[in-house]
Amino acid sequence: MRRRLHPTLLGLTAGFSLSLFAVATASAQNSTGEPGSPSATATIPGNQLPPPTPIFGGQIETNAAGSKTWWAPRVVPPESAPNVLLIMTDDSGFGVPSTFGGVVPYPTMDALAQDGIAFTNIHSTALCSPTRAALITGRNHHNVGFGVISEQATGFPGYNSIITKDKATVGRVLRDNGFSTSWFGKNHNTPSFAASQSGPFDQWPTGLGFEYFYGFVGGDANQWQPNLYRNTTPIYPFRDQPGWNLVTGMADDAIGWITQMNQINPSKPFFVKYAPGATHAPHHPTPEWIEKIEAMGLFDDGWNALQDQIFANQKNLGLFPDDLQMNPWPSDTIKDWQQLSDDEKKLFIRQVEVFAAYSAYSDHEIGRIIQALKDIGEYDNTLIIYINGDNGTSAEGGLLGTPNEVAFFNGVTEIPVEKQLELYDEWGSEHTYNHMSAGWSWAFDTPFPWFKQNASQLGGIKQNMVVSWPNGISDKGTRRDQFLHVIDVMPTILDVVGVDAPQTVDGIPQAPLDGESFAYLFDAENAKADPPRDTQYFEMMGQWALWQDGWFLATEVNRAPWVSNASPNPDPLNNQVFELYNLTTDPAQANNIAKDHPDRVRDMRQTFIREAAKYQVFPMDASFTTRLAQPRPNITAGRKEFVYTRPMTGLPQGDSPSILNTSYTITAEIEVPEGGAEGMILTSGGRFTGYGFYLLDSKPVFLWNMLDLNRVKWQGSEALPAGKHTIEFDFEYEGLGGQTLAYNSMSGLGQAGTGTLKVNGETVDSKKLDKTIPVILQWDEAFDIGSDTLTGVNDDDYKPPFALTAKLDKLTIAVDPPKLSDADRKRLEDAMKRASD
Prior knowledge:
Elements lengths: L6 H11 L2 H5 L6 E2 L8 E2 L5 E2 L24 E2 L7 E6 L18 H9 E8 L4 H10 L32 H7 L3 E8 L24 E6 L10 E3 L2 E3 L10 H19 L5 E6 L11 H10 L6 H14 L25 H34 L6 E7 L16 H4 L8 H5 L16 H7 L13 H4 E7 L9 E3 L3 E2 L3 H9 L6 E2 L2 E2 L25 E6 L2 E6 L2 E5 L22 E5 L15 H17 L10 H5 L11 E4 L3 E5 L10 E10 L6 E8 L2 E8 L2 E8 L3 E6 L7 E11 L19 E7 L2 E8 L12 E4 L21 E10 L5 H15 L1
Parallel strand pairs: 2-4, 3-16, 5-11, 5-12, 6-14, 6-15, 7-8, 7-11
Antiparallel strand pairs: 1-2, 6-13, 8-9, 9-10, 12-13, 16-17, 18-19, 19-20, 20-21, 22-33, 23-32, 24-29, 24-33, 25-26, 25-32, 26-27, 27-28, 29-30, 30-31
Protein name: Arylsulfatase
Family: Belongs to the sulfatase family.
InterPro entries: Alkaline_phosphatase_core_sf, Sulfatase, Sulfatase_CS, Sulfatase_N
């Protein structure tokens, strides 16, 4: 029954409502247009997001003719708020771009530096997911759940890869303050266990305040055939476009979105987060870019000469004093160039030319976006922040580089040079998941030591960036050297656009920002001003540091990034060799003076402990590979049987049934039509590791792709006749499985097992695997039933999508994890005790 208001009450309500617009907009900072009209706008104080719904300010009578309409003012940003283009590249060290002394041409960054300010002293967290979480939230990475990458998440607040609701992103804040918001490229901030079609989607870009997302979920992506999403829907734009590459495809989509937003509403500013995959492995430039770099001969003299050239360039640019010393080449770990064989030199030059081509190609495509801003007349009114790298250059290719980065994460760190040379002409193509040798990585971090992952070394955390904003920066072509951190970027953006950080979002009180605005450094009179903070901690997988007023306390590196299965430090807080540097006089971290300042070392250690406790760094964990393999929440947790009755594609690895380090049985009930059948029944992974269960010329096949190094196939010898059949693959695993990870032991992973292929209950093939995949399948590929979405596990047998032409009645996966006996536990406990001793 509809409730009626008495006419007297209606009159009173109407009378009051005439004055309510003033009440409704009293908290607005600025208003335009006739109050209550469709064209009325208002800025909001932003302390509460979304803003409260204004009280109706019109007049309501019993009929529309005697009533007065009223529209809530449209929320707009403060007047003259610029657009924002936030760019962050991947795995690129200080010495990569030409803007900061590198030899790789970066004409886009060079031009922006001439139009703005070059910042030489901004810092990352030493790893990708953590840096990106800090960037978009303005908080330290542990403080937003990203102590490590999402694939290594553990069940502690600082490490669970969940950005909690009390820490809204810059996208959310700007969206609710009237900006159009978007995110292009890498999204490594959705938990790997929440990346499926079933959601939840609150940790996806569209759930974090970004209205439009075009990119990939995870740490890296095949640029030729990426696991690409538009918002939360998988898309495959490359399928019918030979030569399509995500580096260009992403720029095209960003240009399209920016142009569309400007055409629809040119008065509404936009915020774009642009995060290309370059230069994270796989290094996938187009052949044209490889040819351009190859013709330049930049690397023919080797990595020692490259380091010398970059260092000389940096001094010529005035980035460092002429008498600056840097660490000597680490010859005990990475050979000097002249010690290499001719084959090694040939391979390594090919590796780095492809890396440099990928990097230059990415900068070129960013330049197309900048040109698009100019074409629509928005360049002068856009704050552009171009950050080179989310950490230092990656050395995860190991000392020899690799044609398959997936192999590295499964403990295969040195594929022989002669084997790699077989792929020389394919390097950078869709047939490689390539990474270069660590020798180049050391040179590209010049003048700083070490690499990505090493949070205690400047080579891991020291980045650079340029900021351009023609309407707001008059001190063009200058440089700033103040200490900054990526947590300072969000506060700076809010400061520039005139928006305060909210106090509540969706009714949830917000934690304060950890960063500080550096917008004051845009003014020439503040060129030598103090940095926005005096203390900053760093920690990554048990290696840690503290910066304090130019002093840098660092732990000695105890694990190189390519060492994936070393026994972890049992006490990473205290079981360390400590180093101390005065970066004011020794900016390259070359002269350890810890012995001369024991009191400062002691005091800075205590400061680090306070910062670590404040920002959720504890409990510290120095493990690497064991964390990749540990169980974490997902839709498969606790389940031992999975049943499917129709085709399904695109389920990410983190949310699909895992058959690693366990016994399992996969049973397919199918009906073969007259004339035979072919196609994929089930696959997970792809060209660089994974498995497939399929029909080939009506014969059943089960295949394990072992890191693209070899393929093991079980196959029936006879074609299946028309009719119903039950095909089964049973695998008996001989190891102890993931239970050993509780003891920080990999001993139970990747062990042997025997596979048996059966048709209608009869064995048709049986083989033993001496080793199995220990840690992870190809993470940018999916779990697919009924077809294969991206790359195939065996190019010799089929090409995706390889749709199943038989009728699938039922597919069942049953897993039977190993059981740990008391004797097994005792043995593992003893081994852990010996390791800690």
